[in-house]
Amino acid sequence: MSATASPVANSSGSVTNQAIQVLQGPYITNTYGGGIQCQGPTRNFTPYVTGSVSAAKPFEGYYDDPVYDITDNFGSFDDDGNNIGDGIIDNPGDILFTKRTRTGQKNNYSLGLGFSMTWSTPTDKNLQDLCKKAATTQIGLQEQITANKRLDFEIARLKNCGELKLRGIQFHPKSPYYSVCADVVVNNPPGHKHPHYHKIPPIPSSSSETPTAIPVQPHSSDADLLGVPLSIR
Is 38 helix (H, G, I), strand (E, B) or coil? Predict the structure, then answer.
């Protein structure tokens, strides 16, 4: 006679709470100088991935369930003197055999994918328009100030380079700073006015007129009377 121990069923469970929190950041602020700051609409896009794994270690799909010897054939006698059981197991703790039993153990997996998105816009559009107008004006002012600074620089460069060239001072052509004054041209060196003109005295057209002085007819030997600009190089 053999008997199998009654299995005991145990149950256990766990609860995992997962939540997605959406954080709305402040409006994007643009600074244009002069204390001008404008806030624009903000779009928040937040992707997320959630997952969980539950497992038992060591993992055992089956286990050996022992079958104990619960025979009770001795310990007492009947009316005829035969051995009978006395209610006490003859071989307590003895295992007759084991049987393979499925545990039902398994791993649990979960995966969640998604995203959250929020769109935030200012409620007063007039303030936005005024701020944009002020920003445009501030940018134009900064560009004009930059242009004025550039003009002052070029005028100062022209003046200094011109004065140095009149004195015969300049960078060597192989110098890395030669290009600083390379585009400055001096048109009127000392003692020379440009452009300038000479007048040729007129010759009387009628013989009846008696001039007080007869002008000399210009010829090739008197080139300075022809009125052309002369330069000696």
Answer: strand
CA 195 to chain centre: 59
Can you tell me the distance from the alpha carbon of 50 to that of 59, in angstroms, rounded to the nearest whole number?
Answer: 25
Residue finishing a domain among 180, 196, 212: 196
What backbone phi and psi angles, to 5 degrees, belong to 166? Answer: -65, -30
| Inside any domain, residue 151 | yes
Q: What is the pTM of this model?
A: 0.41
Domain total of the chain: 2
Per-residue pLDDT of the chain (233 residues; tens, 9 = 90+): 555 556 655 556 666 666 666 666 667 788 888 888 888 777 777 888 888 888 878 888 888 999 998 888 888 888 888 888 888 888 888 898 999 998 888 888 888 888 887 877 777 788 888 888 999 999 999 999 999 999 999 999 999 999 998 888 989 999 999 999 999 988 876 655 555 566 777 766 655 555 555 555 555 555 555 555 555 55
Q: Under DSSP, is residue 41 helix (H, G, I), strand (E, B) or coil? A: coil
- Judge if 131 and 89 occupy the same domain: no
Q: Are 116 and 20 in contact (CB under 8 A)?
A: yes
Q: Domain range spanning residue 74?
A: 56-103
